[in-house]
Specification:
Blueprint (H helix, E strand, L loop, with lengths): L5 H17 L6 E4 L3 H8 L5 H4 L3 H4 L2 E4 L1 H13 L5 H16 L1 H4 L12
Parallel strand pairs: 1-2
């Protein structure tokens, strides 16, 4: 794949699905990560691979959103929400204080990792 635009995904997914089908593998569903360009390539109304395909087997493929990506996207949105963000910042400050005083608490507070929920 040469880029991350809808046209790039459209070409790559179309070629990939055809190659898999040519190996006599029946494709029932495609799991997607929720990226805008990826979703548009598969489910967009105007230029969707699945909708515009002239072959029936491709029109019958079910697009399934990945639950891990959905949870992560919801977590990111919540953490950036104006009502929650200040609380998150305070918790991060408390965690940093705890990390600086391991001897008081008897254990180390894990560092914050944005991608860990």
């Amino acid at each position: 794949m040469t880029g991350l635009k809808t046209a790039n995904y459209t070409l790559a997914i179309n070629n990939g699905l055809k190659a898999i089908h040519d190996c006599h593998v029946q494709i029932g569903c495609v799991i997607v990560d929720g990226g805008t360009a990826q979703l548009a390539a598969l489910t967009g109304k105007d230029n969707s691979i699945l909708a515009l395909s002239k072959v029936q087997w491709m029109k019958e493929i079910i697009v399934v959103p990945c639950i891990c990506h959905r949870v992560h996207n919801a977590y990111k949105a919540a953490m950036n929400h104006p009502a929650i963000s200040p609380l998150k910042d305070q918790l991060l400050e408390v965690a940093e204080i705890c990390r600086q005083h391991v001897e008081v608490f008897g254990s180390r507070c894990p560092s914050n990792v944005e991608t860990r929920w």
